[in-house]
Structure formats: structure tokens, C-alpha cells
């Protein structure tokens, strides 16, 4: 028996009349495909390359700066020496504060949107509003925070004002993640629960939320990491150049990692001398943010596997 | 008992509705404050002078509040970054959803997500201390901090947005269309180009618009990398001062409710209107797409 | 007609937005009787079934006209407490859908949400329901393991036990065996035979033979209307309507 | 107790050193220091968001007016002296520029270094952003109120300007004396080199005083700090930071 | 046995990862003959069908052992060009899946990707295929409207026309009428009758009566194996195997 090769599948042999271009066509089509697939793969590679490049430079230039002292001491000598402890604390404070604001509001909003609201014009407007909120530039959040929290509410430049501003900015992230998590809870769970005489709230509390919890947590982690990495919203609302002690109340100003990088790199007293500190701070920030993201990504992919 | 239960249910419902309105309330508040703090500048200058004026000297006496150079700068960096990020983002999306094996996709996707997670200040820092000098050397240009550098950095920030939304769109193209095309003797490339991408086009457009919206609003990158010259650029290697950069660098010096302060909020309004327009367009496209999706049932 | 009507639909019309899914349905269900609803895909069987415990209330665009009586009370009357109603009318779905909880908690769920706190009562009721669902022997040693680890057939019987635990009066089943293999299907059918001693059962099925095997009465739906309803034997041996006959003999659907 | 200091990047090195020294003698006080430019410092005084506002220029009339409207009376303390020096890239052969040449470069009239005796190379004008007191002094003393070309790169601080000049071969910039280091090359103005000596003697044409502002007459910790600034130890710190002390 | 074998599976085994979905399938398809594949859900009918045009190649974890011959050539031989092979073996799916393009472009698609540029040839071929699919009269005035605006039955016939346009030799159909209403189903069945004059047709169906109506040969699959294959008349009137009989009479599945 002979193989079904190129020839035996050719047009003459297959009984198809002469409307198709003969054999020549396919080789070209294949070559075209190989070429383009090369481009597509290349595009994907560039992403990895970009990430790798940034991480490589930050790591190779920053790791020498990292030491126990760097992580646990305040800056000294006009910020040309010492550590970044207050920045780490400030950033953690801001991010946790932001999530403390955004998580309850975001989750409750998502529950309303997904479990209670009936579709309609009003819903459409609310949704549109939330998607627009997600699109508001971070610097505009900063303006808002400055005008509303710092000045109108009299909080001044403070941890509280910064956390609230970041919280407002994180809100759409939380709402989005929670909605996705709620949507992935099969409707049959809801119907089964309601069919047993549970109320809507009982259904949400006992069946829907427990199933959605991991997804919501993932969203929360991503929200924290986003808040931790933002600079523009805290520039006018929370962060200062230098304050060596740990904030004693939420009305205190704080130092923060992203802002610290920015000022050291653009407005420090001796930019060139403090380069290692800048790289070191950037590395700490990256480790913090990407670490959280990695946790969230791994957690989520585990979840997805379990769901299957 | 039933009455009590009903009342609790109602109360919970209203509570959640209340909280959901808070989320929208924030948007309303943002708009309110932007306009409230921004509009008074138009007592000093006309809208036309503001938007079309060529000179931005906010602290001179007499001062000039013309933001055309800032608007043009924002648009240019956005467009240039889009020219880099659209092909890169869409092609990566195609690769992830159509070409890569599951294993490879499982590695590449987190990479894209991590790229999205990199804080903007880190990207700005990278552009400032490494890319700038590199561009200076390779292109022999006088200034490393310029429109091109900023666009490049912005592109890396919007690629993940574009890629992940576009990938969703491609992924949601039903397998049945893929199979139908292959079963007719189309190659994979032909299937992608002629069937999958057209079918996912509205999702891809949404992705592109949202990516550009992210780029135009991004602050730290343009603040650190664009060079900060408030002029109309003559080449892609000229320094520029996009709107967010101006707001971020000048807000701290503008005394509360002085002219400069109002002018910066007014820039915020312009920026907000831009991103809002982008979002509305994206929403429109997504909406239309959903409707045609239903119609196909 | 020795048995009295447990439930009755009277002049029931149902709409999804502008699309009318049910037209003037008049259909009664007797006490301790099994009624099968058959008909081609999309004819409205599930929609009708879900009208009987007002599960369709959840669909925002839907609208009902007409009455459904449970023991002579209209369940669509404004004063009716839907939550209470649903407890009286158990429901089993096409695909087994146990909650991601333990076997025990799955069965106890309906009791808990209905305010039962006493541990002994709950434990007793769980055992009773699992026995009724012919599952007790298989799971009594792993009550506190996750229900998701069970086989499909076991899961479906668990869902039945879960529905029984709140002691409903009527049991609605929407293609309860269509996702199961022949053996599990057989078990479910036997179970229905058992349960019919205590409950009124209404079952939707695509499988004509199943309808013939388990039901006392069969109603044939077509395009949102009831075409024919009669004793199951009569329907399958001597249908009056031509469409019914064509459907039963597999001419279409 | 907390004390916040905000403003001029010219004063920043001094303020930072003073803050650290002050916290040594008064461990009960937490001092926070922010930069950003003189405008930021004065604005913070006007808005009441800081205790001490640094400035490398005097307060403007409009700012005083605004402050008074808000019931604040800014009180200036002249804590030191400084001169502004033009700087170029270390590889740039140009050694001296006249005030007129400097002005023409900053208004965009001179675009190439060969016009002032340098190499054939485009002049990259680097300036400070509008919040800078140095920028304002430069405008008064060099520019004769003419505007800096819009194409000038703007940087937010003295340090940033050093950084920009270091990496840009064709750059011309201006910084406070305290920021001069080996990465940039000082250029003499009309033949006079910027230095402490030439500034005190008044021969150097571009010099200005440095201020700290308080909200009303200082009290409590703020007063203690201001007193510390004018103490011998305090003035030593000012000198150590590269600025010129008042005594 | 007057007609010769068009396709033959020989000792075909198929695996999804570790799960074996097909066991030693030996089955031949005659020229200009309709073969029906029947069997309960999950028995491997679709899997087998998709082995015949190597559509399963797309599933990364899948593995094939054995041979499938098309005109005595093994389609799994390494030298075979899958793209070309698929053009020769048309496929129609369970749900109508027209491309979101115009009616004309849907039918022309296969020609275009296969390198036909000549407008007249394309137009002629489109008309011919639509006529063969008994759709021409209904759509000839709206060829340039979107295919998504058609009814389900029309869409399915469009998909058939689309498959015919590239002039395949074999037509695979996986439950082509299961998403359609009785009338549309009837049209499709009539169409199969017509097409069988030119093509070898292999059709998967859940509907026993449909198998009986349209096919010449019927193969009964169960758990990945062929239990029985014979003339359709024989299978339905006088099956040799007990499982076949039980399935046909609806005892299970
Ligand atoms: N949520 C819904 N919104 C709009 N239309 C719906 C909805 N659910 C069902 N329908 C429509 O109502 C009609 C009846 O659907 P139903 O699910 O009751 O049919 P069925 O007889 O149960 O079919 P099957 O045997 O396939 O389950 C169908 O035409 C269906 O498209
Ligand atoms: N992509 C896949 N990956 C893993 N297993 C699969 C896959 N597709 C099908 N299977 C399994 O292979 C077996 C045969 O599936 P197949 O779809 O061929 O059945 P079928 O006879 O067509 O059923 P139906 O009548 O429901 O369409 C089933 O057990 C199914 O779960
Ligand atoms: Mg149904
Ligand atoms: Mg199948
Ligand atoms: O001293 P300045 O930073 O305001 O120039």
C-alpha cells in the first residue's frame, strides 16, 4: 500500500476539477504560515525579554544595596546612607489601608451588581460608571484626593488621605475581580439553595461567597499590590521626602517606596551617589509587588485547575 | 418570622444598593471636584486660549495658561506608544490564544501579567537611567529623555492591557468557527487571519482603546522620561511635557485655589475627558459586539 | 380519579421578555403520583417545571399570567412567601449539583437555612433522608468528606436526599438522569418508584422509555403548549394526537 | 512632636543636615523634610501644611496677599547665602560665558556651542521648573525677565539638573553652588568664578540669599529649630552642606 | 457489496491523554453510501468521526494508533498533508456554525483559502453548492447579507453548502440536525438523500429513527468499541447483539 502523499492527494488524483491552483499553492501557504507564526512568537518573546531586562538590571544593580540595615534602618546623612525602613512601613500602611477601604465596599458593590441588581438602564449606568472609574488616570485620583480628603475633609497630607485615595483607585479592581469570582459560581448552586427554601442572603452568605472567596482573595492581593506600586495618587496626599520615624497615627505623613525612588532619582541632593540606594529601593518595591502578584497568579491557576 | 425575614432581606438589599452607589458616588465626586476646582481658571482665560494657547508659563507675571503643547505631547506619546504596543499586544494575544501550546501559554501569560504589575515608577526609573543614555548613544541624539523614550516605556505599560483583553476576545471566538475553517482545508494562519481575528475584532478594538486610555493617563513614566519641555515637538527625539507630567510636577507648588491650582485642575478635566471618551467608545464597541453575539444564536 | 389534585396549573402563560414560552397551560398533578413531561427540546418543559416553584422569578425579564394552585392556594398570589413555598416543593436538577461542602452539610443545609439548630434533630433528619434516597449504606462512613468526591449517580441521589431533608410535599425533577450512566439511571428510577409512596413527583425527561417506565401520567408539550395529557399507558399505546404519536415513535425531536 | 520642613532644593541639603543634627539634640522631635522647590515651600506656608518653608527666593507680593487672606503671616529668616553657577558637561571646552551669552542661550537665540567658542554641537538648554527659586533668581539676574525657551528641558531639582547635565554632552544648566561636583563643569560668568569668596565680596553677579519661612513668629519646637539654625552648630551644618552661612 | 470502500478504519485506537476513547475500531465506508453511527452519549462517536479528517490532531494530548485509509492511502502517514486532506473530507457540525460573514463569503471561503481567485468560478461554485444544499432559492436575493440573520435550519444548510463548495469526496456530519426543529430536520434528511448520489456520507445521530430513515449502514458504538455493524434494516429489525437491541428499544442511553 502506498502512502497518501502530496501527489496522491493532488488535484488530478482527487477528482477535483481544475478550479484549484495546482500543488504550488500549498507550499507557499505553509511558508507564509511559518513566517507569520515566527512573528507572533517573536512578539510574545519581546514581552518576556522586556520583563527579563528590567528585572535583570534592577537585580544586578540593586542587590548589593540590600542588607539587613537597608531594610530595618531609616535613611541617614541627607539620605545618602542608611535604609528605607520608613518607606517599607509607609507603603505597607498605605496599601493595607487602601484595601481596608476598598475591599468591603468593592465586594459589597459586586455582590449587589451580580446577585441583586436586575439588568436595566440604571444598572447599565452604574456599570458604565464603574468601568469609567477604572479608566480614571491615577494622577486625577491624586487631584481628587488632594481636594477632597486633604483639604475639604481637613486630613492634610497624611496616611489616611493617601490610603483613601488609593482605596478609591483600587475599588474597580476589587469590583472586577469579585464579579468574576461570583460569576464563576455556577447558577445551579444558587438555584439548589433557593429551591431548599433559603433566602437570597442565606444563599449568598452560605453558598455563593464561600465558593467565590478564593477568587475574591486573589483580587484583593492584586489590589494591594497595585496600591503599593502607585506613585501619582500619593504624591500630593500622603508621601513626603524624609520623615525618619514610623508614623504614630493615621494623620501622619509617611515615606513610601515608589515616591522614595522618584525623589531619589529626580530630586535628591546627590543623585549619582545614591544610585545604588535607588536600585535597591526599586528592587524592594519590585519584590514586594511582583511577589504578591506571583502569589495571586499561582493561587488562581491552582484554583482554576481545581474548578475543572 | 416570615415578616422579620423579609424585612432583613429588604434591609440587606438596600444596604448593598447603598454601597454600590458609593462606588459610583466616587466617580461623581471626582468629576465634581475636578470641575469645581478647575472651572474657575476660565475667569482668567477663555477656554479657547487655554486649550489652543501655545505657551505654558503658569508662574510668570503676567502668566500664560496655554496647554496646547501639553495636549499635543499627550496625544503624540500615546499615538507613538500605540504604534508599538498594538502590534506587539495583539500579536502576543494571537500567539497565546491560537499558537502556543498550553504549557507555553501557562508560562507566557504570567509574564505578561507581571509586566502589567511592574510599578510605573520602576518603568520610569528604568527609562530614565538606562534607556535614556542608551538612546543617546545609539542614535547620537542630544537628549535621552524625549518623546520616543516615553512612548517606548508607555508601550510596555499598555501591552499587557491590550494583550489580555484581546486574548479574551480571541479566546471567546467559538471553537466551532476554528474547526469549520480548518475542515475546509484552510491553514492555521488563514484561519486566524480570515476568521478568528475578524470575529474577535470588536474585542480587539476595545483592547486597543483601553490600552491607549491607560497610556494617555499614565503619569510617572512621562514625568520621569519625557523631558518636561512644554513645546510642540518637532521630532520624536524632542523633549515634551504631557498633561499628567505637568499636573504631577506642579501641583505641589500651586497654592490652594490660586490661578495655577485652578489651571492644573483644568488640565485634569481635559485629561479626564480624554480617558472618559476612550472608555465610552470602548464600552460602545463592547456593547454592540454583545448584541451581535446574541443575534447569532 | 381516586386521588385528589396536589397541584394545578390554570391558564398559565409565561413570557421571557417578548417571547412567549408557555401558552394557556392547564395541567393537574395528583397526590402520590408521578407525572412525566415530555416533548422536543425547547418546547417549554423546563420553563413550566420552574413555574411550579417560582424559580423563574429569578429571571428578571420574565412574566407570568395565570394561576398555579398548591392545595387550592394560588402560589402566585401576592401574599405568598416564596421562600416558604420553595421549601414545600423540592427540586432536583439535570446535572447533579451538590454544594462544595461535606455530604452531611449538603443534606443538613436546607434544615439550617430554615432555622433548625438542634444537632440531634439535624443528624436524625440527615440519616433519614439519606436512607430514603438509598444512599445511607454507601456513605455512612464518609459523611464528613466532600460531596464532590462522589460518583455522578451518588451525587444525584445526594441531591435528592438534600431535597427530601426539608420534607417537601412535591418533588420536581428536570431530566434527573440525563447526565448519568445506565446503571445510575436505573437506581434513580427505582428510587422514584419508592418515593412516589410519599410525594407527588413531576419529572421532565427526554427519554420516552423512561417516561413509560416511571410515570403514571404523561403530558406531551410542543412549542409551549400541552398537546396531549393522559395516563402513561394510553399515551404510549394509543395516543390521540398525531404529533404525539410522531414524537413518541421518534418521527421528530 | 513633629516638625515639617518643605521647599527649596537649594536649601534642602542644609535643611536635611540641620534636621538630622537637630534630632540628635532633641530626640523627642521627629523632623520630616520635603523638597520640590521654593514654590512648594512658600505654598506650604500659605496653605498651612508645613512648619518651616524653605525658599531660595523672597516671597512674592501675590503670595503674601494670598497668605494674609488666609490669616497667615509668613516670617522670613535669612539663613544663608548662595550663588547660582552655570554648568556644562565636563567634556565641554567652554570656560567662560558672559551674562548676555547666557541670556541668549536661554532665550533660544544661541543654538550652537560654536557661537560661543565651543565645538559644533547643539546647545541643550536645561532649566528648572516653575516652582524653583533658582529659576526665578535666574530670571531676575540673567534673563532680565525674558522667558526661557519652551524647548528647554525642565528638571525638578538642583540634583536633577546636575544629573541631566552629566548625561548630556551639549547641555547648559545652572545650579546652586552647593551642588557642584566633579560630574559637571563650572563656567565663570563675565570672567568671575562662582565661589563663597566672590559671592560675599559681591563680585559674582548671580547670587541670592536663602530663607526659611515660618507661619507667624515661630513658637515651641519651630522656634527651637530656628534658634538651632542660627546657633554656631547650625551654621556649621549650613556651611557643610555647601551653602554660604550668614556668619 | 457492489460498491467499493471509500474509507476504512483499521485497528484504530484513540487516547485522550491516559484515557482510551476508542478501542480497535474496524469499520469501512462504501462509496455513495450513508453510514450512521449510533450509541449512547460519551461512547466515542464524535471522537471516531473526528479521527476521519484528523480533526483530533488539534487536541494536544491526543494520540492515535492504527490506520485510516482513504482510497487505500493511510491518512495518518507522516507524508500526508493534513490541510489538503481536510479539503477532501467535508465536515458538518452539531450546531450550525456559519462564519460571521455574508452568505456568499461563507460559501466562497473554502475556495478562497484554497487559492481560487477567479471571480466567475467562485460565483458559479457558490451557486452550485447552494443549489445542492437546497438553499439557493431562499437566499439568492440576499447573498450579501450576514449569514447570522438566517434561521437555524438555513444556517445548517449553509454550512453544508460551505462544505460542498470545495468538492469533498466524503461528508462527515456530527448530529447535524440535533439543534434544529422538526421541519428543518426533515429538510436536512431530504438533503442527505440527495447528496448521497455523489458523496460518501457518515452521520452521527442520537435519534434512532433518523438513523433508520437516512442510512444504508448502521454502526452501534458502546464505550469506545463497535458492538455491531450491519445493514440498517437488519440492525433495526433484527439486531444480533443484546446491548444493541436494548439501546435501540430505548432500554438505556
Ligand atoms: N432565560 C431565558 N431567557 C429567554 N428565553 C429562554 C430562557 N430560558 C429558556 N428560554 C426559551 O424558552 C423556550 C423553552 O425553553 P425550555 O428550557 O423550557 O425548554 P425545554 O423543553 O426544557 O428544552 P430542553 O429539553 O432542551 O431542556 C426555548 O425556546 C428557550 O430558548
Ligand atoms: N477533548 C477531550 N479530552 C478528554 N476527553 C474527551 C475529550 N473529548 C471527549 N472526551 C471523552 O471521550 C469520550 C468519548 O467522547 P465523544 O465526544 O466521542 O462521545 P460521543 O459519543 O460523541 O458523545 P455525545 O453523543 O454526547 O456527543 C467521552 O468519555 C468523553 O468524555
Ligand atoms: Mg430543559
Ligand atoms: Mg458527540
Ligand atoms: O531652590 P530651588 O529648588 O527652589 O531652586
TrEMBL record, chain A:
What kind of membrane protein is this, topologically? Multi-pass membrane protein
Where would you find the membrane-spanning parts of this chain?
A: 39-63, 83-113, 133-155, 161-182, 203-225, 279-299
| Name of the gene | pstA
Q: Which GO terms describe its cellular component?
A: plasma membrane
**Name this protein carries in UniProt:** Phosphate transport system permease protein PstA
Membrane keyword on record: yes
Q: What is its main location?
A: membrane
- Report the locations given in the UniProt record: Cell membrane
Name the UniProt key words of this record, in alphabetical order: Cell membrane, Membrane, Transmembrane, Transmembrane helix, Transport
The record places domain ABC transmembrane type-1 at: 88-296
Name a single GO biological process: phosphate ion transmembrane transport
Instruction: Give the GO molecular function terms.
Output: phosphate transmembrane transporter activity
Family from the record: Belongs to the binding-protein-dependent transport system permease family. CysTW subfamily.
UniProtKB/TrEMBL annotation, chain B:
Q: Membrane topology per the record? A: Multi-pass membrane protein
Extract the PROSITE patterns matched here.
Answer: ABC_TM1
Q: Where in the cell is it found?
A: Cell membrane
Q: Which CDD domains match?
A: TM_PBP2
State a single Gene Ontology molecular function: phosphate transmembrane transporter activity
The protein's organism comes out as: Desulfobotulus mexicanus
Residues annotated as transmembrane: 12-35, 70-96, 116-135, 147-171, 219-237, 261-282
Q: Which UniProt keywords apply?
A: Cell membrane, Membrane, Phosphate transport, Transmembrane, Transmembrane helix, Transport
GO BP: phosphate ion transport
Spell out the GO cellular component terms annotated for this protein, sorted alphabetically and separated by semicolons. Answer: plasma membrane
User: Could you tell me what this protein is called?
Assistant: Phosphate transport system permease protein
Q: Write out the similarity annotation.
A: Belongs to the binding-protein-dependent transport system permease family. CysTW subfamily.
Q: Which Gene3D superfamilies match?
A: MetI-like
Database matches in InterPro entries: MetI-like, MetI-like_sf, Phosphate_PstC, Phosphate_Transport_Permease
UniProtKB/TrEMBL annotation, chains C, E:
- State the source organism's domain of life: Bacteria
Q: How does it sit in the membrane?
A: Peripheral membrane protein
Q: Name one Pfam family in it.
A: ABC_tran
Task: Work out whether the entry's keyword set contains Transcription regulation.
Answer: no
One Gene Ontology molecular-function label: ATP hydrolysis activity
Residue span(s) of domain ABC transporter = 7-248
InterPro entries to which the protein is assigned, alphabetical? AAA+_ATPase, ABC_transporter-like_ATP-bd, ABC_transporter-like_CS, P-loop_NTPase, PstB-like
Kindly give the PROSITE patterns that the UniProt entry links to this protein: ABC_TRANSPORTER_1, ABC_TRANSPORTER_2
Cellular location of this protein? Cell inner membrane
Q: Cellular component per GO? A: plasma membrane
Q: Keyword set for this entry?
A: ATP-binding, Cell membrane, Membrane, Nucleotide-binding, Phosphate transport, Translocase, Transport
Family annotation (SMART domains): AAA (SM00382)
The record ties this protein, via CDD domains, to:
ABC_PstB_phosphate_transporter
Q: Name one GO biological process term.
A: phosphate ion transmembrane transport
What job does the chain carry out?
A: Part of the ABC transporter complex PstSACB involved in phosphate import. Responsible for energy coupling to the transport system.
Q: Return the protein name.
A: Phosphate ABC transporter ATP-binding protein
Specify the species.
Desulfobotulus mexicanus
